[in-house]
């Protein structure tokens, strides 16, 4: 850490994450109800319903592992968000922020697998293994996209990466890396086209047996992950808090909301992709494309 | 005690205790994640000595490694997917003797070895220094090996994904033939 951040920044971060997660859920609901604004009330109704719902239990469940998985989801989302600059500085200004973000987001695989394993029930188990397969498929191009941004900035620190885009956004001169990042952002939150781990074809997959507060924590974690995935695109590719007139924190917020809206919208426009087909696409198209992009950026930087 | 030494002892006890738990629990899943907890604890200790790149990389790699292990667990276990309770130790009489012997040997090594004195100070940017010391003189070899590993991985995937359950070239059996 370079300098200590004021005490209110972690609180502001948590507040912003919760509000944006709620906004994402509400927007998703509105899109799902043919743009009827009554969808805006769905998230609070769902929260109330889950809070009073009785827990459903399965015989010989491994409750410890399941709870660890469910609670891990929001925890790793917040830990990943800690290195993202809120305006000028992040809550934790790690020198290797990009790697930290990557590590926290890989922990999501563990969380999903544990949540799927815990109930000792077949559909969640299948969902858990789908999550691992999908993780292995998206992770390599995703890492290359992150490294390309870090290479362009010559630093693994998120603030430095954002600061290196004063002249030109990385999204403009490394479009392939940005596109790969957006695909993997969907996969990080197992959202939309990448939602097979919680697919309706296996009765909700990982979350099939979750009910009551467990399900509430899981869903909160999932929406928070979606927000964090969208928010990370801002310092990595969209110039961070840079912009005219408005203060940096407001630019960061506006850009995050824009990316988040695109991700939520994608769920309603794109079909879910099977993991083995996505592996094909990811390893045979996205990895070579990301490598060529990295080569191009490497040559420019040299 | 400083905050750092408190953190060190907490992480050290956590790592050792979850290392023991690997052999005590009766489920493959619990053993896997106990081992992961232990290794993540070690990774976090690296953060305390300012080797943040190595520390975060250990956490990243160990989580991925344990998830890959979960895949293999379901593929190769005789006990179906490790779903049944099972004992995590083999050779329960010989193993403690061997383990105790190795432990005593290592402890003796700690006290008998002539430890070198520290020379020089830590570099300003440990990540940069680490990269140079690993890659510096052997850059070409590392690059070639890296590309070879990646090519192997991609060609393995090409061979594997072609024969998906629903994608093969073989015509599917008709329902009446299928029984």
Keywords:
heterodimer; A: 302 residues; mainly alpha; 11 helices; globular; B: 179 residues; 0% strand
Question: Could you characterize the architecture of this molecule?
Answer:
Chain A: One of its GO terms (biological process) is aerobic respiration. Chain A: One of its GO terms (cellular component) is plasma membrane. Chain A: Pfam families: NADHdh (PF00146). Chain A: This is NADH-quinone oxidoreductase subunit H. The complex is a heterodimer of chains A (302) and B (179). Chain A has one domain (8-301). In chain A, 69% of the residues lie in helices and 0% in strands. Chain A has helices spanning 8-32, 42-52, 63-81, 97-117, 122-153, 158-163, 170-173, 175-188, 212-237, 248-269, 275-301. Chain A is globular and about 60 Å long. By secondary structure, chain B is an all-alpha fold. Among the domains of chain B are: 1-88; 128-161. The termini of chain B are far apart. The relative contact order of chain B is 0.07. Chain A binds chain B through residues 62, 64-65, 68, 94-96, 99-100, 102-103, 106-107, 109-110, 113-114, 117, 120, 125, 129, 132-133, 135-136, 139-140, 156, 276-277, 279-280, 283-284, 287, and chain B through 27, 29-30, 33, 36, 52-53, 56-57, 59-60, 63-64, 66-68, 70-71, 74, 81, 83, 125, 127, 150, 153-154, 157-158, 161, 164, 167.
Short description:
The complex is a heterodimer of chains A (302) and B (179). Chain A is mostly helical and 302 residues long. Helix content of chain A is 69%, strand content 0%.
* Number of E-state strands of chain B: 0
The ordered string of helix (H) and strand (E) elements of chain B is HHHHHH
> Strand fraction band of chain A?
under 5%
Distance between the termini of chain A: 29 Å
Tell me the total number of β-strands of chain A.
0
Fraction of residues in H or I helices of chain B: 55-70%
Query: Could you tell me how far the N terminus lies from the C terminus of chain B, measured between alpha carbons in angstroms?
Result: 72 Å
Low-confidence stretches of chain A: none
Compute the average pLDDT of chain A.
Answer: 85
